[in-house]
Automatic annotation (TrEMBL):
Gene3D superfamilies cross-referenced by the UniProt entry: Zinc/RING finger domain, C3HC4 (zinc finger)
Domain UBR-type: 38-114
Species in which this protein is naturally found: Anopheles epiroticus
Keywords: Metal-binding, Zinc, Zinc-finger
Claim: Zinc-finger is one of the keywords in the record: yes
Official protein name in the record: UBR-type domain-containing protein
Basic and acidic residues bias (residue ranges): 227-259
SUPFAM superfamilies xrefs: FYVE/PHD zinc finger (SSF57903)
UniProt cross-references to Pfam families, sorted A to Z: zf-UBR
Length: 410
């Protein structure tokens, strides 16, 4: 009975294979679909979000020298760095392609050969050197035997093992839209104000919103708007404060429109620490749509600019928005999974078994083939893959009694 269960658990159906292919296609569409694979993005300036790569063949020093780090766009990775050792960096924001530029002077860009201007606004975190997380290890890590998921911080855009996020209790990252690492929470302490206050993204207002001073001004420099009859604001009407206007007499009553223009209102919740819902320490996880709850009063917007995180107010900055655009660019013809399932339903069981046998044979041979490159620390090129399939097809044709040609995906 146990042997039967073991066999069933290892059994693979054609539907399983197609489902796995669908997941791979989904990832590819999400990461690459929103980027241009034919044209270098240099002329577009600092692109809001795009797929990026680092070439260690052209700049091997990048592993150890921070000033040597550089990034290239998707099109340049395909046209200018084919068969090179590339680090896939997923996506980065506000980046301009370095291929053939001042950071890669030994490289000639085939798509945009004239790149003389330094990309001073590019930011190069440790990912451009091939390491990630607070453990500063590569991914995948050949020495790490722990099965752990990695998640990207929406601020610094580094990737972290969930076990290294300094969390009191484990989080199911799939239940959340974005994550801010502990280091970025300390660098941007105003985000602590929202922890525990944004739980349902479908709500239109924050719970228990109150007014706080985010201007950094001393209380003595702030003049409160006082009305003897309305000194205490109602529960749905936060009490307002006005920035000091030293030129106006205290007793002079300004026109209503001027007073409104002078108000700098913030309904951001106060920092609540060491409570059940308040911020405690480490990384924070945020529900999808949390950014729309960030206060956009004048003082807060200036605060975001000061910390260089004003992009948090831009919905197009999110990875989800980027991925959705990429998926839409592929049209509505259906995925390989959908098309494959339709074709599979028209085949008899014997043919399905034959296809599965050939698929398992091909994957086994391919795994053995790739293991040689891993053992010798060599880069697999497109020619290597083409030679592998050519040899496999030749063996199949020369083998007697094997029926029709196998179904190989290339």
């Amino acid at each position: 009975m146990e042997q039967k269960e073991e066999q069933d658990s290892s059994y693979v159906t054609m539907a399983d294979i197609l489902q796995e292919q669908e997941e791979l296609e989904e990832t590819s569409r999400a990461v690459l679909g929103g980027s241009d694979e034919k044209n270098c993005t240099y002329s577009k300036g600092y692109v809001g979000r795009q797929a990026l790569y680092a070439c260690l063949t052209c700049v091997p020093e990048a592993r150890g020298i921070e000033s040597k780090r550089s990034g290239i766009c998707l099109a340049c990775s395909l046209q200018c760095h084919d068969n090179h050792e590339l680090l896939e960096l997923y996506t980065k924001r506000n980046f301009r392609c370095d291929c053939g530029g001042p950071r890669m002077r030994e490289v000639k860009c085939k798509l945009e050969p004239r790149k003389e201007e330094e990309n001073v606004h590019n930011r190069y975190n440790q990912n451009f050197a091939g390491v990630y997380c607070v453990c500063h290890r590569p991914y995948p890590d050949p020495e790490d035997e722990v099965d752990d998921e990695m998640v990207q911080c929406v601020v610094c855009e580094d990737w972290y093992h969930t076990r290294h996020l300094d969390l009191d209790e484990p989080k199911n990252v799939k239940d959340y839209g974005e994550m801010v690492c502990g280091g970025c929470m300390e660098a941007n302490p105003f985000l602590k104000n929202y922890v525990g206050k944004i739980e349902d993204p479908n709500k239109t207002t924050l719970d228990d919103t109150v007014q706080v001073d985010v201007t950094g001004l001393d209380e003595s420099n702030v003049t409160a708007t006082v009305d003897s009859e309305h000194d205490i604001a109602g529960p749905s009407e936060p009490k307002q404060r006005r920035l000091d206007d030293s030129k106006a007499p205290e007793t002079e009553e300004k026109p209503k429109e001027d007073a409104t223009a002078a108000l700098d209102i913030c309904t951001k919740p106060p920092v609540v620490e060491d409570t059940e819902k308040g911020y405690k320490k480490g990384a924070t996880f945020w529900m999808e749509g949390w950014r729309k709850f960030l206060c956009q009063c004048k003082a807060c917007v200036e605060l975001y600019k000061k910390h260089g995180v004003e992009y948090l107010l831009d919905e197009k900055d999110t990875v989800k928005y980027y991925e959705d655009v990429g998926k839409q660019k592929h049209g509505t013809n259906g995925s390989s999974y959908e098309q494959g399932m339709q074709m599979l339903g028209q085949l008899d069981q014997v043919t399905q078994v034959g296809m599965l046998t050939e698929y398992n044979r091909m994957t086994s041979r391919l795994r053995e083939f790739l293991d040689q490159f891993v053992a010798n620390q060599q880069v697999v090129t497109r020619d290597d893959i083409n030679k592998f399939f050519a040899k496999l097809n030749q063996e199949r044709r020369e083998s007697p009694g094997n029926g029709p040609p196998p179904y190989f995906c290339r």
